[in-house]
Structure formats: structure tokens, C-alpha cells
Amino acid sequence: MKSVPKSNAAVLLESGLTTLSSLLPLFDSGGGSFYDLRHVMQPTRDQPVVSHSANTPAFGPISNLDAGPNRARWDYHAVHIRQLRILAVVDNSERAEKWLTTANRWTSYMVGFRSPHN
What we know:
Layout: H1 8-23, H2 61-67, H3 74-90, H4 95-109
Helix pairs in contact: 3-4
GO molecular function: heparosan-N-sulfate-glucuronate 5-epimerase activity
Domain D-glucuronyl C5-epimerase C-terminal: 7-42
GO biological process, one term: heparan sulfate proteoglycan biosynthetic process
């Protein structure tokens, strides 16, 4: 069977799914999901972190700590779960199991399960 070259869109999709698979654990709060990754990303001058304190600088690690993680509300958390379940169906790769496992764990957070801690 002759191999068909991947389109640019297919290459970009594969790259995006690979990146999401790598970063997905950073979205897990242990009891819900994060809306974004501002708690692990350094702000840029173009996108400063909104600080809750007038005395905190708009840039740098202190501003990240002051703003804190952006935890997803339960309705957004439910959207994240639906997105992962859809990915588990449409992504024909070894990642499909990771999408489903994460979706199942995140579903359990909605009924009180929390990840263990030390």
C-alpha cells in the first residue's frame, strides 16, 4: 500500500496532540482541572499577569504567586472531560488511553475523589 504524505494540517494536529499529551498533567490540580497554565508559565511583557495586589510587580515570579492558579469552575471542568473523551475516540494513537484515563480521573473529582498527597 502506498503511503500518502501528511498534509500540513495533519502535521500540525499531530504536533498539537503530542504537546497536549505532554502538558496534560500540568492541568490536573488533584481535585479538578486548571483553566490555563499561568501558575507554571512566566508572563511576558505582552501578557502581564493580573495581580490582586497593587504592591506586586506585573512581571516575574512574585506576580505568578500572587495571582495563583486559575482553577476551572465545575462547568469548565466538565467541558475539559468531554473534550478528553472525544479525543479518546478520534485520536487513533497510543495517546487515546491517556485521554480516557485522565477523563475518568477528572470525572471522579466531580464526586469528591482527590488525588493522594504526602
